[in-house]
Amino acid sequence: MTRPTAAPEQNWTLLESREVSDHRVFRVCSDRYRFEPTGAEREYVVLSAPDWVNVVPVTPDGQVVLVRQYRHGIRGSSLEIPGGIVDPCESPEVAAVRELREETGYAPERIRLLGRVHPNPAIQANYCHMYLAEGCRQVSQPRPDPFEKMEVLLRPLAEIPELIRGQEITHGLVLNAFGFLGLAVTAGS
Predict the structure, then answer these.
(1) Domain with CATH 3.90.79.10 in the chain
(2) Do β-strands 6-7 and 12-22 pair in parallel, antiparallel, or remain unpaired?
(3) I want to staple 69 with a disulfide (CB 3.0 to 4.6 A). Which of 19, 59, 110, 150 is the partner?
(4) Coil, helix or strand for 162?
């Protein structure tokens, strides 16, 4: 992950960056900037996180492999696609295949990048890389980490828009992935 130290086009100069706390999946940093037109200084909180991946896994018969899991932020379950953190020295594509297999037991015949987004550039510099995994077949049992419990579900790709409209799928990055998939389908790629 690379963060710029100055943004001259915006007249901001980074004066100091210090880690405040480490929470395994992200670090909280305090960045002090000077706004050059006025000389005023201000501290900003930044979450330093590794890149993430999300995978839209589709079986040969057009089923999307979804996972339902508890999310502490909403204190409830969320219907999502497989995804997770890109490990150090791991490519996003390798991470996507690994996360898919760990969370669902499925493996793809082929995988391709749909796009990538900054999850929240106001406070984060990382990317979420989104992949389409085609020809997915179950090859093993899921192997989630010890603090994950997931239900694996199959839904026809044609039903995904209704799951979104009905707010059964509400995770913003999952919605981004399906949006990228829609753009890819529309573009014919």
Answers:
(1) 52-187
(2) antiparallel
(3) 150
(4) helix
Cα distance between residue 3 and residue 54, in whole Å: 22
pLDDT tens digits, one per residue of 63-77: 999 999 999 999 999
Taking CA atoms, 155 is separated from 34, 58, 59, 76, 80, in Å, by 51, 9, 10, 21, 12
Percent of residues in the chain assigned helix, strand, coil, to nearest 5: 20, 45, 35
CATH of 52-187, one of 3.40.50.720, 3.90.79.10, 1.20.58.2050, 2.40.30.10: 3.90.79.10
Distance CA 93, CA 53 (A): 8
Measured CA to CA, the distance from residue 99 to residue 167 in angstroms comes to 24
Segment 56-111, tens digit of pLDDT: 999 999 999 999 999 999 999 999 999 999 999 999 999 999 999 999 999 999 99
**pTM of the entire structure?**
0.90
| In contact, 107 and 139? CB cutoff 8 Å | yes
Q: How far apart are CA 150 and CA 139, in angstroms?
A: 17
Rg of the chain over Cα atoms, rounded to whole angstroms, equals 19
CB of 188 closer than 8 Å to CB of 180: no
d(CA 161, CA 97): 24
Residue with tokens 């550039």: 121
